[in-house]
Amino acid sequence: MAEPVRGAQLVSRVSRLLKAVSEHPDGLTAAAAAHATGLTRPTTHRLLASLAAEGFVDHDVARGRWFLGPELYLLGSLAADRYDITDAARESVRLLARETGESAFFSARRGNETVCLLREEGSFPVRSFVLYEGARFPLGVASAGLAILSYLPEEEVEAYLASASASLEAAWGPQHSPAALRARIAETRETGYAVNPALILEDSWGMGAAVFDLAGRPAWALSLTGIESRFRPERRPELGRLLLGQAHEVSKRVVGS
């Protein structure tokens, strides 16, 4: 039996485990949870069982899968009044999907990641399924995270690249090296919007624009995804203008809320 985990290390492991479960709406096995978090299987089983006892996860015994539990729903609903601004973004997400025909999203920054909070399908029949509600990506990987990263202060950008560069390249390839990210950050700052040219999934493009909080910091982002033929160079400025316009509208709603 592994030694008991205490203090900050325990909090970190529980956090990683809950995030892994949250990224799988159809549930995931304990073995998959262990692989996703880097924890040993005994530790994963022990933590999942403890979380289930408190109602933070549910276990479907017949399928051998774990899901987020009812206690998290209750805690989330209590926190929503302070942190949930999806109502401020919902109409803009719908408008972007309606005007462009692409899938539109609203994502929030959580530490060094973005989390997708809203998704609205467009009318174009061929879609990209890289993003979905609950999906997480490191800053700089998806277009939403690139838009947010690009508007952080320079010293924060450099600190992030210094600490995350090895893991980004290992997980997402050389197109996410510090030099490649700096080039895309410069391009984003020049145009105002971020472009992800199929760097996550072949033929799946994305564009994003940052949404700013009361302090003027990039805290959220609106984005669009679709196939490459829908993001040709001649169309990108139009999509960018729509994204920037709606990102400005959501920022105003946040400031006025």
TrEMBL record:
Residues 71-256 form the IclR-ED domain. It comes from the Bacteria. Gene3D superfamilies: 3.30.450.40, Winged helix-like DNA-binding domain superfamily/Winged helix DNA-binding domain. Keywords: DNA-binding, Transcription, Transcription regulation. Residues 8-70 form the HTH iclR-type domain. SMART domains: HTH_ICLR (SM00346). It holds the Pfam family HTH_IclR. This is IclR family transcriptional regulator. It comes from Herbiconiux daphne.
